[in-house]
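Is this the right way to post structure tokens for a design question? Let me know if I should format differently. Anyway, here goes:
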């Protein structure tokens, strides 16, 4: 009988130890792998885009569309198309001098983004102006130079971008004042 009691005690003790070990394992946080976040200055990407000729090509297409609309007598379309360059210029100012989102510009290089991420060894790419919180241990890698490369910038454009990087973005208010005739 004593043997039976010892066996029961050993089995119960074993189960108890296993239960505590399992509970302790579930409480211990596993070490997490940090993501490497690629950040870029969206103003630099905008400058590279504007100087790449893609915007000029877009304007040429719009001009041809305008000519067709005029030839067809489509006054509503002509009115709409006449407003587009003004709206684009305002948007480009906010993107190139401020911190406005550049999703429309990034659309031009979307196929290059996986390669840029791989080359820079980053897991995520985000505009540096879109970071609302950063854990002090987060790994951020500036990939601005890699983000402008697909636009094949010339030396003049690269110098503009270099100069831009050292300056803070212009506020929305200052851009609006500039557009209304006041200066930055």
């Amino acid at each position: 009988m004593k043997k039976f009691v010892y066996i029961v005690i050993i089995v119960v003790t074993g189960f108890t130890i296993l239960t505590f070990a399992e509970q302790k394992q579930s409480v211990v946080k596993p070490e997490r792998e940090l993501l490497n976040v690629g950040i870029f200055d969206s103003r630099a990407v905008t400058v590279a885009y504007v100087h790449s000729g893609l915007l000029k090509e877009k304007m040429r297409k719009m001009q041809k569309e305008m000519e067709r609309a005029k030839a067809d007598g489509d006054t509503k379309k002509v009115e709409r198309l006449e407003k587009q360059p003004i709206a684009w210029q305002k948007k480009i100012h906010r993107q190139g001098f401020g911190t406005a989102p550049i999703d429309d510009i990034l659309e031009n290089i979307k196929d290059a983004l996986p390669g840029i991420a791989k080359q820079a060894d980053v897991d995520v790419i985000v505009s540096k102006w879109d970071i609302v919180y950063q854990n002090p241990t987060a790994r951020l890698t500036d990939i601005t130079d890699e983000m402008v490369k697909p636009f094949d910038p010339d030396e003049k454009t690269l110098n503009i971008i270099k100069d831009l990087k050292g300056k803070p973005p212009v506020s929305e208010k200052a851009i609006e004042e500039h557009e209304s005739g006041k200066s930055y």
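Format looks fine. Someone answered above. Worth noting: Residues 2-27 form the longest helix (26 residues). The radius of gyration is 29 Å.
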